[in-house]
Amino acid sequence: MSLTNLRRMEAVLSVAFVLCLLASTGVHGDSLTVLQAPEFVSFQKGDWPVSGEKIPDLVALTMGFSVQEDLSWPGLQAGPLFQRPRANVLVVVRGVDSLALPQSVASYPLENPVPFTLDSVAETVHSLFAEDTPVVLQLAPSEERLYMLGKANAVFEDLPVTLQQIRARLSQDGSVLASLPLNSLSRNAEADLLFLSEVQVLHDITALLQRHRHLAKDHSPDLYSLELSGLEELSRLYGQDSPQYRDATAILASVLQKFGEDVYGLYGNSAVVEVVTVKTFEAPLTRKSRSILQSPQISNPGSPYNLAYKYNFHYAVVFNIVLWLMIALALAVIAIAYNLWNMDPGYDSIIYRMTNQKIRMD
Fold it and tell me: Which residue ranges does UniProt annotate as crossing the membrane (predicted)?
């Protein structure tokens, strides 16, 4: 048998293997997979589709928050009123419709894959637990988009976020290049390095969380939102039938599985970890975000990441004191000016009164 025929047979067997995996999982197309969830967050197994625009509401409900519109979706059952997970981690993987994740709580087909963000959930966490300063981290390495709130500013200040920083991190000690089976992936190709840099970010996040274990012991829930698009670049450059794409898919599946287990364990088995796999979004994402590339106009000169000034929780008190004091002083000035304008010097002023008496005595 010739070498060409062997390669064709290998490709056919690979495609058949992938189809078997998809058939065994019961999920075809874009999907939402729940990797980890505590017992009090009840996900029901089934093939109920969930809309992409409802993902933020689903995340909010898993964290025990209320939403504006009821989510009529049977995949998530109501849980205990006084129990909520300590963290929610959502990983969005672009460029693949499903991953062969060996262990998961449940998996659901994703319909209407429109772009979404967790900004509303982050605002809810920050408003309800402002005094506890929870961790809110939203990161997209490929777009170099970073958004941090609360304790994330201190915990993840050493996290490489730009592509240049991440690629430099790949050559340092503790890099994932030393432990990953690269196979057909190259350390010199641009698309391959983008994918490996995203894997490195996942590794560094868990390493930083292990270093700051006190985050999982506070009473405020934490929120993590990560967007990975390395597979999308590999698919565009090499194609979905290429060995680079297949090797990267296998690597990412194993890395995400370990990432979910590590985060779940660090938060004391009280974290929800979801993975959204989407081939391509139906519309481009338009949003306002703090980008680390927007350095010409920095609102806070002391911060290199273009972050806003730290919010002072006494602002409302000071604002009310200054406001009502200014109103009182303004009313006092008006009253004094009115009385001076209508004053009779001969009767209302002691100076003129004494002068008149002195004149009469003379």
Answer: 313-341
Q: How far apart are CA 156 and CA 205, in angstroms?
A: 8
Torsion angle in degrees (nearest 10) through CA of 244, 246, 247, 252: 120
Residue 103: Cβ-neighbour burial (10 angstroms; 0-12, 13-18, 19+): exposed
Q: Which of 120, 94, 117, 97 is nearest to 107 (CA)?
A: 97
Tell me if 17 sits within 8 A of 87, measured CB to CB.
no
Please report how many Cα atoms fall inside a 13 Å half-sphere around the Cα of residue 340, on the Cβ side.
6
Q: What is the DSSP letter of 291?
A: B
Structure-derived torsion over alpha carbons of residues 265, 274, 287, 290, reported in degrees to the nearest 10: 10
Instruction: Compute CA distances 32 → 65, 194, 287, 309, 319, whole Å.
Output: 20, 23, 22, 36, 45
pTM to 2 decimal places: 0.69
- Residues 88-107 have pLDDT tens digits of 999 999 999 889 888 899 99
